[in-house]
Amino acid sequence: MSERSTGETDKRRQALARWAGHALQSGGDMALHTLAGDAGFRRYFRAACQPGGNWSSLIAVDSPPSRTNPARFVAVADYLRRHGIHTPLVVAADVEQGFMLLEDLGDCQLLSQLNENSVDGLYGEVLSELLCLQQIPPAGDLFPPYNRELLLTEMRILPEWLAQKLLDYSLGDSEIRMLEDTFALLLDSAAEQPQVLVHRDYHSRNLMLRDGERPGVVDFQDAVWGPVTYDLASLLRDCYVRWPRERVERWALSYAAMAETAGILPAVVPETFLRWFDWMGLQRHIKVLGLFPRLYLRDGKSGYLPDLPLVLRYALEVAGRYDELRPFADWLRGALLPLAERQDWYRDYRHAGERQ
User: Fold this and answer.
1) Inter-residue contact 301 to 39 (CB < 8 Å)
2) How far is CA 190 from the centre of its chain?
3) Which of 233, 249, 323, 337 has the most crowded CB, counting CB atoms within 10 A?
4) Is residue 356 domain-resident?
């Protein structure tokens, strides 16, 4: 980050502290303590509140309007809460400045609590929450369609940012055609599926556990209207933790049965649903294989690179199981994997994601 941008960031933090103190009528600037951010341009701080008030602490958000859409964040948070999803309550907001004060849902991410003994029960909770999410009705133009154009744009991040910019690999014409053919297959599969509300990042770092309460849901501001298996694949083929294929497929089919009973999903044979699930997960992982390098190279966020081997594992395992997708798996293994193995962040993808 340049000196100028660092100075601007510090000024925004100071302005946020003044605004938060005024919004809460605290008589002075709020003391802000930096929290880990998400993959976007928002910054999060915990602000301790005065004793005796309605809140012991709140989350102060710096959401620059030039790079984010704070008004949409507020609108989506409100809409999801009104339909039973526990998104953080927006206590105060100035969307023109891009400042918000949110309910503090704590620090207990689902990821930190997952183990062999807990996973069935915890996934049961968050899958029930997903079922509620997918039953939410459309809301005008609040949730744009997760259409072919958007899905394709996401997948094209891989050749640009992983292959060319991170690994310095130049694609030939035949490789570009192979990728476009693969992408078209995945787009056709997505279009076959029932379309529902999609959180778009429904995974173990965005689900907060709280004693005696329903899970909290964060990082929802990019929600769209799209394929029914997208969030399910985000959760069960999580980029930060992996479970055996047989277990994942059992959870996926159990969810399909619940969704069918709830009227979200028509009756489909298990093979069709699992193909939808596999191919939707592959679309997401292709996107992530480009997104994590972009976060590092463009935005200076290197913390996501160590998670790339697990994403590579998912992509190779899924693509390798389908004849139509095998050319992509062969290319990924033959062209990019040897280059990835030379990177500092790389570890053996064959064991990536396994819990010790």
Assistant:
1) yes
2) 18
3) 233
4) no
**Sequence-distant (≥ 6) Cβ neighbours of residue 195 within 8 angstroms:** 145, 146, 225, 226, 227, 228
What is the tens place of the pLDDT at every residue in 76-110?
999 999 999 999 999 999 999 999 999 999 999 99
What average pLDDT does the chain have?
Answer: 92
* Cα separation, 265 vs 261, whole angstroms: 8
Residue 34's φ and ψ, nearest 5 degrees, are: -65, 135
Nearest Cα residue to 275 out of 218, 320, 318, 330: 318
CB 119 within 8 A of CB 238: no
Number of domains into which the chain is organized: 2
Provide the token pair at 61. Answer: 């958000």
Bridge partners of residue 33, in order along the sequence: 46
304 part of a folded domain: yes
Show the tokens assigned to 313. Answer: 């594992």
Statement to judge: residues 59 and 191 lie in one domain: no
H helix count then E strand count, the chain: 13, 9
Residue 228 DSSP SS3: coil
Q: Which one, of 51, 97, 49, 46, lies nearest residue 74 by Cα?
A: 97
Question: What is the pLDDT at residue 2?
Answer: 40
